[in-house]
Design brief:
mainly beta, five-stranded mixed beta sheet, 5 strands
């Protein structure tokens, strides 16, 4: 599958340009979920729950596709 550079605005990925894989039809997905998982050092022995940051395809700027931050889902 081909990939294209896309610009992410808002949320934790604000201002980053990242590669996004196109669908089999050559389109970009309408929605991108960026998962945030991992361990951290702190007073708690429990691992923090997984968090997903949702970005929605919103158009383009100078031929670069733009994904706009929509919301964070805690889970």
């Amino acid at each position: 599958m081909a990939v294209v550079e896309a610009w992410f605005l808002g949320g934790p990925a604000d201002g980053r340009v990242m590669l996004v894989e196109q669908t089999a039809d050559g389109d970009l997905p309408k929605l991108v979920r960026l998962s945030q998982v991992g361990l951290h050092f702190g007073a708690s022995e429990a691992v923090a729950p997984r968090v997903e940051h949702i970005y929605v395809l919103g158009g383009s700027v100078d031929d670069t596709q733009v994904y706009q931050y929509e919301r964070t889902v805690h889970g």
